[in-house]
Amino acid sequence: NAGVTQTPKFQVLKTGQSMTLQCAQDMNHEYMSWYRQDPGMGLRLIHYSVGAGITDQGEVPNGYNVSRSTTEDFPLRLLSAAPSQTSVYFCASSYLGQGGITEAFFGQGTRLTVV
Amino acid sequence: GDSVTQMEGPVTLSEEAFLTINCTYTATGYPSLFWYVQYPGEGLQLLLKATKADDKGSNKGFEATYRKETTSFHLEKGSVQVSDSAVYFCALSGGYAGGTSYGKLTFGQGTILTVHP
Questions:
Q1: Cα angle vertex B83, ends A95, A39, to 5°?
Q2: Is the pLDDT of residue A1 over 90?
Q3: For residue B97, is pLDDT > 50?
Q4: Torsion angle of the four alpha carbons B4, B7, B8, B13, in this order, in degrees rounded to the nearest 10
Q5: Could A90 and B43 be called an inter-chain contact, meaning their C-beta atoms sit closer than 8 Å?
Q6: Region B35-43: what's the mean pLDDT?
Q7: Sheet holding A19-25: strands in order across?
Q8: Residues of B in contact with A101 (CB under 8 A)
Q9: DSSP category for residue A26
Q10: What percent of chain B has pLDDT over 90?
Q11: What is the model's pLDDT at position B8?
């Protein structure tokens, strides 16, 4: 009963480095999303996916790439890390319920620091 | 676009005090409304939800009523406990009549609640 699993939990990067944040869900949910959490700003949507092979941009997509080759996995790639990307990143999965209503299930988060 | 505004925080209360955290929203169509809670070092958990006007969501003593006329979804609890200390997020999903939000949520800025014994 793992739910949504994110790895790593903590990461320190140097400016300009690249890395991939992993996200996997075992609930067969069709929708997956990435958010970043910054103090005083709540969570902001980076990218989302409505199914394998289909992704789209959210509110703050610059500097990030995603892909969705399987229903289970939705990795987030930082192409060239910048200090402005220091944040806590959350992955979420959702299903289409009755009446078009979805409920999101969140991972534990990845705390990223870019120095 | 859609937006959610939460009351300015943080909120500090004594145990057994009454809690209100205000939340108002702007959205087109018919959004669903949620309260999520984040305990220290953890991810977000759904606390309660309401999917249409006048619905009341409730869980663990917390309640919130979907008020379309005032575009509000205020969170209340009659008697808070130390274990309720956390960050609370109001969020909305959808707002598209007959459509779907594809799981995308719009969040308020979060309210830090600290309850002292």
A1: 65
A2: no
A3: no
A4: -140
A5: yes
A6: 91
A7: A4-7, A19-25, A76-78, A64-66
A8: 32, 51, 93-94
A9: S
A10: 72
A11: 73
Chosen for mutation from B96, B104, B106, B111 (greatest number of chain A CBs closer than 10 Å) is B104
Q: What is the 3-state secondary structure (H, E, C) of A56-104?
A: EECCCCCCEEECCCCCCECCEEECCCCHHHCEEEEEEEEEECHHHCEEE
Cα angle B112, B92, A54; round to 5: 115
Q: What pLDDT score was predicted for residue B52?
A: 86
Cα separation of B79 and B109, whole Å? 24
Q: pLDDT (tens digit, 9 = 90+) per residue, A9-59?
A: 999 999 999 999 999 999 999 899 999 999 888 899 999 998 899 999 999
The answer to whether residues A42 and B109 touch, using CB atoms and an 8 Å cutoff, is yes
d(CA A104, CA A83): 28
Q: Is B100 in contact with A102 (Cβ distance < 8 A)?
A: yes
Rounded CA separation A76/A65 (Å):
6
Residue B39 Cα distances to A2, A93, B27, angstroms: 19, 19, 28
